[in-house]
């Protein structure tokens, strides 16, 4: 069975990722307003009726902005850790479900497993989503690579992978020194170079799609980031997940020799 994936938005202005099959789906994070989430899904011909749950990686505003309204409107369970929940005061407790790292959660034919990551949040986690033999990873807001990340990256057929900043742009940019250090200090974000090292050293043979995610508006350039990865892409389709609009929906399946997007790719935009 195939998995269908899209980034509804990716960046410090909001993060939300859709992963599902023909019958059920989940959202990872809910950093768009409920109205904007619905609008973008309609443009992609995706239905909220298929969404069975929301999984929250951490409590920062660009990951939970639309959470309370979205969960309430569609009566969706929200999988979230106790420490992360303390940063989500507006979420009604009736929708709260807990998860524990490395303990799989079954929703229909989807299996979702969380694992911890380095980020300056209360209890941050990344996720892998499996359906039969297909595996998709959502790996963003990561301060540095670690054995947890490497082990799960090697299992994936498609990945949302953070490439937040260009090191030279960050160093020469307008951000104050303390913020630069927060971003690159091991509990902030992955640089293009760090993400590329992970890709080159640990890419699985079956990785068909790599969606570069959470690019900084001020400290990165999608042309630079994509160019770095395209040099080493091989058979992997490299896409920049926009901070302004949804990506196409991509069909990830081991049963198809060539993976095709359901919709025509959008034009690459300057962030």
Can you tag this structure with a few keywords?
single chain, 271 residues, alpha/beta, Metallo-beta-lactamase, Chain A, 7-stranded mixed sheet, 14 strands, disordered C terminus
Your description of this structure?
The structure is a single chain. The chain has 271 residues and is α/β, with parallel strands linked by helices. The protein has a single domain (3-252), classed as Ribonuclease Z/Hydroxyacylglutathione hydrolase-like (Metallo-beta-lactamase, Chain A). It has 9 helices and 14 strands. It has helices spanning 34-43, 61-64, 67-74, 82-85, 147-153, 167-172, 177-184, 192-202, 222-230; strands spanning 3-9, 16-20, 25-28, 51-55, 78-79, 96-97, 105-107, 110-116, 125-131, 134-139, 158-162, 209-213, 237-240, 250-252. It has a 7-stranded mixed sheet with strand order 6-5-4-3-2-1-14, covered by helices on one side.
The coarse silhouette is globular
CATH architecture: 4-Layer Sandwich
Oligomerization state of this entry? Answer: single chain
> What structural category characterises the helix and strand content?
alpha/beta
List the helices and strands and how they pair.
Layout: E1 3-9, E2 16-20, E3 25-28, H1 34-43, E4 51-55, H2 61-64, H3 67-74, E5 78-79, H4 82-85, E6 96-97, E7 105-107, E8 110-116, E9 125-131, E10 134-139, H5 147-153, E11 158-162, H6 167-172, H7 177-184, H8 192-202, E12 209-213, H9 222-230, E13 237-240, E14 250-252
Parallel strand pairs: 3-4, 4-5, 5-6, 10-11, 11-12, 12-13
Antiparallel strand pairs: 1-2, 1-14, 2-3, 7-8, 8-9, 9-10
